[in-house]
Write a structure and sequence with these properties.
Length: 76
Amino acid sequence: MAKVISLSDAAYGEIKALKQGDDSFSDVVLRLVEKVKRRPLKDFFGKWPGKTEEAEEIKRKLEKDRKHFALHGVRF
């Protein structure tokens, strides 16, 4: 079922510029959404907004939890 949406002229131009071959606007939007959904973890490296000590504490806690769950046969 098709839906009607409104776009600014700027947004329309950006999406139109991304069309390839016989792409529909839906094809372009779905391709963009898929990229956002599957951002690699490395995109988030170095993004911790808090103090370094907080990040280190979280890291220690995660390592402890992983060891605990590994002892109980839980795999990640």
